Structure formats: C-alpha cells, structure tokens
C-alpha cells in the first residue's frame, strides 16, 4: 500500500518502483507522484494540488498561551461568504513549523477550534474548494504521460486519486465533533459532504478522463470506528456508488481504503461498486477480519492487504512475519483476487524492519515457488 521507508532511500516514485520490481514485487506508479513535502496545504491528501482562490485572503499568526506550555497558531480565511477560522496548539511534535495546512491529520487532536463548526462555516467552505485550473490539468496530463511511458516499459499499473469524502469532513470538523454533528445535525453534515463530494468529483474527472488503471478513494475515517452502518448508508454510500460508477465509465477500476472498523461495513462494500478494497488488516476489526472479508466479498471485490505493518513488520520478529504471511496466504487460498501487502505503511528504517521486509518477501516467494497456495 505505502512504503515510506523505501521512499526515504529513493529519489522519486520511479526509483521506488524500480526497486520493488527488482525484488520481484508487483509495483505501481501513483499520478501525480508528489510526496508529502510537496503538498504543504494537504500533506495527507495525495493527488492534484489544493490551491485557494484569488479572492480568499489569509491571515496567520502565532500567539503565546500563558496557561499552556505550547503556543497557539491562528489562521483566518477571508471568503466572500465570511471568515473561516482555526486555532491549533503548536506542540513539540508539530511538523509544519509556523504554518497551518488547510487539511491535515496532525490538526485534528491539536485543534482548539476546528475550521468548520456550523452552517456559516459550511457556506464559507464553498469558496475555498474550487476545481483544478487549466494549468493544473495540463501539468497533471504531462505527469501522466511520463507515468504511462514508464508503465508501458516496466509492466506496472498507474493509480490516481486520492478521492476523499468524510475523511475531508473529519479534517475540517475534527473527528469527535463530526460524529456528534452527524447524529445531532445530520442535515449540516449532509450538506458538508455534498460540497466536498462535488469538489472531489471535479478533481476525479480530471484523473479518470486522462486515463488511469485504478482510481483510489481514501476512507480511513469512514469506518465503523466513526460511523454507524445506518449513517454510512445515508451519508457516505451514495457518493461512493456515484464515484465508482464514474471510474467505471472511464475504464478505470475503483479502489477504496479502509482498515480499522471494516468488518461491520462489509455488506455495504458489496453494494458500493468498489472493485478493490485496500487495507485488509488481520489485527483490526474483530477476531478474524481476513476470513470475514473473504467469506463476504471474495470473488466480487479484490482484497488487498493481509499483514499488519506496524505491529508485525516494524515491531515483530522474523518468526512473526513468517507466521503472518503464511496465515494470510492460507486464509486466501483459492480466492480470485487477493493482493498480499503490509497494511498500511512501512515507515520505520531500523535494521529489524529491513530484515523483516526481506523475510516477508522470501516467505511469499517460497510459498509461491512450492505452489502451496
């Protein structure tokens, strides 16, 4: 799924793919291939750039907080519909210096005031989320042409995205606040998700019309940890179905990322039109999430994952990795559509991690070589 540790050893996404191919793995190119430091306004949302319209002015300032050991970063967006404001604690591990991105995972637990809290903020948000410009579309098409040439030469797929829905709402509102709003003020959340959905669809059209093999939507914050199946069906599923249909209309497969809290949503996944479910984690979501997903989705949805990255690959022993890979392959034996992968991301760069990566690959090679699975 993601391999941040390997990216640290490589100059760009193409070198990452070459290294994975050299290991005998199935690699891919994600377009546009920008990394986190190239996305200051949206580090956790891959894909096309997010730029503010010219008529939105921004104020940003740092203030000492006498009752707190951390200063506070304040940011105000002046839109034609009024002001949008946010304030975040600049903790010691704040990674953005004296800058506050528009959306970012780090802001959620540090926000003293989220960007969107009521109907007035929703109206202001309409003026922030604008479709890609002609220049941005032209740049993307140029990047996709280079990716296409690489894919044709090396036999890899091209992925695009990320699509976003309730994850974006979680960044804007805070996850706790969003969960409460969905119960107490569902009409507000429905309108917020509609604004995000239309904006996301405009971005998605640029990607799928240009031609990718796989379009991916992130749904880490769309799981049962944050949404009941009833609310998911009402507020999130219609957009997911609409986006999967748009991908299919342009010849692309539609992928969806969900890890923790997946099991209660499996029946909804079967209705969604999703082709590929990324993030199947054996250690999150019930006693045996791999078997549950296999029994309810196998043959209809490609299942991507099988081994936990953080606990098994990064913190586990070589025996832990061997056992986990073997168990994943045993569980998915005979399944038409399973991609073995660590979930979600191998990020650490210790000697233990690199040894476990080698063990992971060798265990898979051995199993395939013996034709056991």
Could you explain the architecture of this structure?
The protein is α/β, with parallel strands linked by helices and 373 residues long. The mean pLDDT is 95. It contains 15 helices and eleven strands. The protein has two domains: 301 residues, TIM Barrel; 64 residues, no CATH class. Strands 1-6-7-8-9-10-11 form a seven-stranded parallel sheet. The chain has a four-stranded antiparallel sheet with strand order 2-3-4-5.
Keywords summarizing the entry:
alpha/beta; 11 strands; 7-stranded parallel sheet; 2 domains; 15 helices
Give a topology summary.
Layout: H1 4-7, H2 13-22, E1 28-31, E2 57-63, E3 72-79, E4 82-89, H3 107-110, E5 111-113, H4 119-125, H5 134-154, E6 157-163, H6 166-173, H7 175-184, H8 186-210, E7 214-218, H9 229-235, H10 237-249, E8 253-257, H11 266-272, E9 276-280, H12 289-297, E10 302-308, H13 309-314, H14 318-331, E11 338-343, H15 351-369
Parallel strand pairs: 1-6, 6-7, 7-8, 8-9, 9-10, 10-11
Antiparallel strand pairs: 2-3, 3-4, 4-5
CATH topology of the largest domain: TIM Barrel
Number of helices: 15
Mean pLDDT: 95
The largest sheet has its strands arranged as 1-6-7-8-9-10-11
Report the portion of residues in β strands: 15-25%
- The secondary structure category is alpha/beta
Number of strands: 11
The helix-strand sequence is HHEEEEHEHHEHHHEHHEHEHEHHEH
Q: Estimate the helix proportion, in percent.
A: 40-55%
Shape: globular
The CATH C-level name of the largest domain is Alpha Beta
């Amino acid at each position: 799924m993601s391999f941040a540790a390997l990216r640290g050893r490589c100059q760009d996404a193409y070198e990452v793919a070459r290294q994975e191919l050299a290991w005998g793995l199935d690699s891919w190119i994600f377009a546009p291939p920008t990394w986190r430091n190239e996305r200051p306004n949206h580090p956790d949302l891959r894909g096309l750039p997010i730029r503010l319209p010219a008529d939105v002015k921004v104020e940003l300032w740092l203030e000492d907080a006498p009752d707190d050991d951390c200063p506070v970063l304040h940011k105000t967006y002046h839109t034609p519909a009024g002001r949008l404001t946010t304030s975040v604690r600049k903790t010691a591990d704040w990674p953005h210096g004296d800058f506050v991105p528009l959306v970012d995972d780090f802001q959620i637990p540090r926000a003293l005031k989220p960007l969107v809290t009521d109907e007035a903020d929703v109206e202001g948000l309409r003026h922030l989320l604008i479709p890609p410009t002609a220049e941005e579309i032209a740049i993307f098409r140029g990047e996709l042409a280079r990716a296409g040439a690489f894919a044709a030469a090396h036999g890899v797929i091209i992925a695009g995205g990320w699509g976003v829905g309730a994850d974006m709402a979680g960044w804007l509102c805070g996850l706790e606040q969003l969960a409460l709003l969905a119960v107490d003020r569902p009409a507000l959340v429905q309108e917020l998700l509609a604004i995000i959905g239309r904006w996301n669809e405009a971005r998605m059209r640029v990607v799928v019309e240009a031609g990718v093999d796989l379009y991916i939507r992130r749904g880490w914050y769309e799981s049962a940890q944050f949404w009941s199946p009833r609310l998911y069906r009402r507020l999130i599923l219609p957009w997911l179905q609409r986006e999967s249909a748009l991908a299919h209309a342009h010849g692309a497969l539609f992928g969806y990322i969900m890890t923790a809290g997946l099991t209660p949503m499996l029946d909804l996944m079967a209705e969604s039109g999703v082709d590929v479910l990324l993030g199947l984690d054996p250690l999150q979501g019930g006693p045996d999430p791999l078997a549950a997903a296999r029994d309810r989705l196998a043959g209809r949805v490609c299942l991507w994952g099988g081994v936990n990255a953080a606990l098994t690959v990064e913190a586990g022993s070589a025996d832990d990795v061997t056992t986990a890979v073997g168990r994943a392959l045993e569980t998915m034996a005979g399944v038409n559509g399973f991609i073995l992968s660590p979930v979600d991301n191998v990020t650490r760069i210790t000697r233990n991690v690199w040894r476990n990566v080698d063990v992971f690959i060798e265990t898979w090679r051995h199993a395939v070589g013996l034709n056991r699975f």
